[in-house]
Structure prediction request, 273 residues.
Amino acid sequence: MATLKGETLDRSSELVSGDYEQYFFPFVPRAVVGGEEDLEQLISTRRFWKVLLEMKELSETEERNRCERLFFDAFAKHTNICYAMAKWVTDPSAPENHRSVLGTRMAMAAAMFVAADTGKLDVLEKQIDRLRKWRNEFEPIAKLPDRRFPSNYVSAVEDLVITPDYRFQVNVLRLAALRSGNLGALKEVDEACAAIHMKSNTLPMVRWDAQTTILEVLPDSPLDTSEGVTEYTFYDWSDTMTFNRIRFGNTWPADDEEKAFIEKLGSIVFQPR
Prediction:
């Protein structure tokens, strides 16, 4: 916290993308579907909550500009690294890639969360549309076999690194519906999640400079609510889906089902009312 207190918003925004080691917090729960843990990675990061809170204190125009810039700066870095990763594993003569996409993926997720939490549906819609186009462009390259292995089942780039995972996108779309004030859209989103037996959990989130947050609470360290609490409801995949992902791995057509579900929620949230 001493480090964060001395950071400007510009510096914190820059490090949300660059300081990828901050996303390996030891208290983050790991029992999630097929590695889809971007939500936990993000909300366990104090720097992210600092950026969110400080952006909310800006004017509407400046908040919008910073949110858009955070996403597209991270997107540019992220796509460059993904191409470098694919090049390295499919071309033995290419230089080895030493850069991680974790920070850039989390920075895109942070910008999406900010857009959703501040009710900027138009900004979030552009972000999700850009990710959809990027995935369609890159997936054929990502699925090329890794020539460094004798078997051909290894993808050049794992699916989960291409964009923030679908589970995270479900939750930002639900948050956007909530913050938009459109009760009809929120009801439709919740009904869609209930129809596929998703589970919901409400977490009390506190300020970034609280002594203890919900993801750090130990028996002798109660949640620090002295600076206020904001409750967030998040969804997780059903137990059946969790089991099938673990059992079948990459051979189970979960990605297509998740992709279709995101498109369904987007049509609800972004539909003119």
Observations:
- Residues 2-269 form one domain.
- Residues 60-90 form the longest helix (31 residues).
- The chain has a mean pLDDT of 87.
- The radius of gyration is 19 Å.
